Amino acid sequence: MNQSNIYAFGTVFLWASGFVFTKVVLTYFSASAVGVFRYLFASLFLLGVAFVKKIGLPKPQDIPGFFLSGATGFTLYMITFNKASLLLSSATNSIIAATGPIITAILARYYFKENINTVGWLAIIIEFAGISILALWDGVFSFNVGILWMLAAAFFISIYNLLQRYHTKKYTALQSTTYSVFAGTILLLIYLPESIPQLLSAPAKQLLLIVYLGVLPSAIAFIWWSKALSLAGHTSEVTNFMFLIPLISMIMGYLVIMERPTAATLIGGSIIMFGLILFNTTHHKEGVPSGENSLLR
Questions:
Q1: What count of other Cβ atoms lies within 10 Å of the Cβ of residue 117?
Q2: Whole-number Å distance between alpha carbons of 107 and 87
Q3: How far is CA 196 from CA 37, 191, 200, 250, in A?
Q4: Which of 35-39, 160-164, 186-190 has the lowest mean pLDDT?
Q5: Which of 19, 157, 216, 297 could form a disulfide linkage to 90, CB 3.0–4.6 angstroms apart?
Q6: Measuring CA to CA, which residue among 117, 218, 213, 103 is closest to residue 158?
């Protein structure tokens, strides 16, 4: 395994762990508290990295754009992701989150005129069928609202991906990510007053997990991912590791919180993963860059 693969595997392992440990901290913290504290710790860590790397400040005219990417990629994503985590297993959550790259590609089809070929559209239909199985497994009248929350999260992260394509034309990946995280954290601070009492009375285990979620899946993973992409000969060598996230999340969910995958997760998830692999393969053949499809956490 070469160096880029090591960084890539480390990244997807951290992202997969984020799905599991989010469910653990949500047994004590509210969804809004998890969001604000997770990104406060992420911001503190990135502040140290920014100081060491001397990344400088964004141009004043670009600050509104970073607040927009921060709002979609971190504020709104974190709110919807945590809501979904309350209602779905970590494995199901990670599978639905994996649709983010396809949603990004669909949006890019209209905003950047990037083509999706016939096989790509077939893959999207297959994915939709898998999502329908997950959502309606227990019957039409017992629709799992968690699926909608996670699809909303995938949509917001897709908007963030498109905005990052714009920002990285003028800034490095580290700069763009750091500025966006800072902006998203500032917007999440509206939840701070109601969340502080939870922090002050939190057990040590919950505090450590919040720090873990902020520093590793939310900060270090992004740095490792950028490193992996910079070292790889082809982007697909790195992005293909993303297909391991649901599997790792499922295994960790069982080992850490004894979360057994349901028949719906196994069947619907397998259909979704088939669609993802089909889409990913045909999309790379079309030469569409996939480095922006890296936000799964």
A1: 12
A2: 27
A3: 9, 9, 6, 32
A4: 160-164
A5: 19
A6: 103
- How far out from the chain centre does Cα 294 lie? 7
CB 44 within 8 A of CB 280: no
Q: What are phi and psi of 293, to 5 degrees?
A: -90, 35
C-alpha Rg value of the chain to the nearest Å = 18
CA distance 280 to 49: 32
The predicted-structure confidence for 123-142, as pLDDT tens digits, reads as follows 888 887 887 777 667 654 44
Residue with tokens 């709110």: 79
Q: What is the pLDDT of residues 222-281, one digit of tens each?
A: 888 878 877 877 665 676 677 788 888 888 998 999 988 888 888 888 888 888 788 767
Distance separating alpha carbons of residues 220 and 18, to the nearest angstrom: 12
Q: Which two tokens stand for residue 143?
A: 């629709």
* Torsion sign (Cα): 226, 279, 73, 255: negative
* Distances in whole angstroms, Cα of residue 102 to Cα of each of 105, 143, 161, 199, 275: 5, 23, 11, 37, 10
Contacts of 175 (CB under 8 A, 6+ apart): 55, 56, 58
Burial category of 113 from C-beta neighbours within 10 Å (exposed 0-12, middle 13-18, buried 19 and up) = exposed
Query: CB neighbours (10 Å) of residue 12?
Result: 27
Structure tokens at 193: 């007053």
| Spatial CB neighbours of 53, under 8 Å, sequence gap ≥ 6 | 174
- Distance from the Cα of residue 27 to its chain's centroid: 21
Residue 78 Cα distances to 34, 195, 267, angstroms: 8, 15, 27
Amino acid at position 296, single letter: L
Give the residue carrying structure tokens 């391991």: 244
CB 261 within 8 A of CB 109: no
